Amino acid sequence: MALASRYAVPAIYEAREYATAGGLMSYGISLANAYRQAGVYVGQILKGVKPSDLPVLQPTKFDFVINLKTAKALGLTIPDKLLAIADEVIE
Fold it and tell me: Please, what is the Cα angle at 87 between 60 and 10, to 5 degrees?
C-alpha cells in the first residue's frame, strides 16, 4: 500500500482494512462473517460433532469499500453507480 501511495497508483485491495487505512478501494470477503462462522464451527466441535461431518462452506458476504479521500488525492472521480453499490464510502 505504501508503494501505491508513494507513486499515486490507484489500487484495489482484498480486505476493507486497506481501504480504511488509505487505500483507494477494497472488495473481499467479510472477515467478521467468516470469523462468526468459524466460531459456530468451533462451538459444534466442542459439543461433540466430528469435524469431518461439518460441511465445507464458501463465503457468501463480500464487502465493497471506497475511500473518497484517497480518490480525491489521486485526482479520480468515482462514478455514482459505484458509490451506490458500495457497502461503505469513506469521506
Answer: 105
Measured distance CA(23)–CA(67) in Å, rounded: 7
Nine-digit cell string for 42: 468451533
Residue type, 28: G
Residue 5, C-alpha cell as written in the block:
501511495
What is d(CA 52, CA 73) in angstroms, rounded to the nearest whole number? 50
**What angle is formed at CA 12 by the lines to CA 68 and CA 73, rounded to 5 degrees?**
35
User: Is this model's pTM higher than 0.85 or not?
Assistant: no
Instruction: Give residue-wise pLDDT tens across range 4-60.
Output: 777 888 989 999 999 999 999 999 999 989 999 999 999 999 999 999 999 998 998
